[in-house]
Design a protein that fits this description.
It catalyses: GTP + H2O = GDP + phosphate + H(+). Residues 274-362 form the CobW C-terminal domain. With 375 residues, the protein is α/β, with parallel strands linked by helices. It has helices at residues 32-41, 88-96, 115-124, 147-150, 153-160, 175-188, 215-222, 227-238, 243-246, 255-268, 287-297, 351-359; strands at 19-26, 48-52, 65-69, 72-75, 80-83, 104-108, 131-141, 164-168, 194-196, 274-281, 302-309, 317-323, 326-332, 340-347. It has a nine-stranded mixed β-sheet, sandwiched between helices. A five-stranded antiparallel β-sheet has the order 10-14-11-12-13. A hairpin with a 4-residue loop joins strand 4 and strand 5 (80-83). Helix 3 (115-124) packs across helix 7. The longest helix has 14 residues, at 175-188. The N and C termini lie far apart (63 Å).
Length: 375
Amino acid sequence: MQSAVTSNSQPMDAPKQGMPVTIITGFLGSGKTTLLNHILTNQQGLKTAVLVNEFGEIGIDNELIVSTDENMVELSNGCICCTINNDLVDAVYKVLEREEKLDYLVVETTGLADPLPVALTFLGTELRDLTRLDSIITVVDAANYSLDLFNSQAAYSQIAYGDVILLNKTDLVDEASLNDLERKINEVKEGARILRTKRSQVPLPLILSVGLFESDKYYDAADDHSHDHHDHDHDHSTCGHDHHDHDHDHSTCGHDHHDHDHHHHSDHLENDGFTSISFQCDKPLSIRKFQYFLDNQLPTNIFRAKGIMWFDESPKRHIFHLCGKRFTLDDEEWKGEPKNQLVLIGQNLDREILLTQLENCVCLPSTSRGQGFGK
């Protein structure tokens, strides 16, 4: 299938067959967001659009940002980051209709999504003539890989349909384990193209414009996916997440917000028994109590957690990431009002117990400020 790369047969048409598209998939916490940031900041001469569920999560360096509107961030290198608000097709059109032409499109699927319906969106809709699916990149977390997780249908599909497998976080795992994991990946996908990476750092020519996608094999697989399944997974791409950053400034630690948030998440995380629990609070937490929660109460069936943390003992804004048993806590200055926002993702979680344990980490107010009345 060299004709798409060489231009002998169609000297002018080959590059114009539509904007090339790369789909990035991978399990929770595998390093997809780090990879997206790597792509956005290292494009030389190419103007790339990245479609994500929430661009706030990418943490783009403020020095790079030229302008921001509600659903788009424009960068000084000509790249943009755009959120998928309602429908993937709509978001792609928004990018294609820009006056300033973009060269490349990268789409991130959610961590629990089967990448096939996203691929079929580009193959089986009106986008087929406007875009060209280049490859599916699957990011695998070598440090937190387990056979149980891999046996989930979504994780299996991510490997089976991946054109390039990034075996990430290889610095955290010994050579024997890496070899064993590569063997397991090859059992799912014979002859898989596997790249070992640390912190998702990979030369971009290895993953972009690689021309690996072969559409024929996907049409066969499409017959196994009902239209309902396609629609359900389309919702994966919408993930009405913008309320995290914008809407609930009024919230105290009450349950109304949890109920609302949990409703949004559980709709699209029900595959393989996964659920997502959100906790939001406008009072600080005690570092000591939160550490106790992590050390003694956090259940093993939480695979991923991330959040913005406000601790009574610190004036800083803390960015919290937990993956498997490891967590990081980075700090920076607050830009808005301090508050806590935390999302926990796992299987068969006891929501009420977890929320109670988190509420027990809240400090009693150090001033006589009211419980969220009047501003």
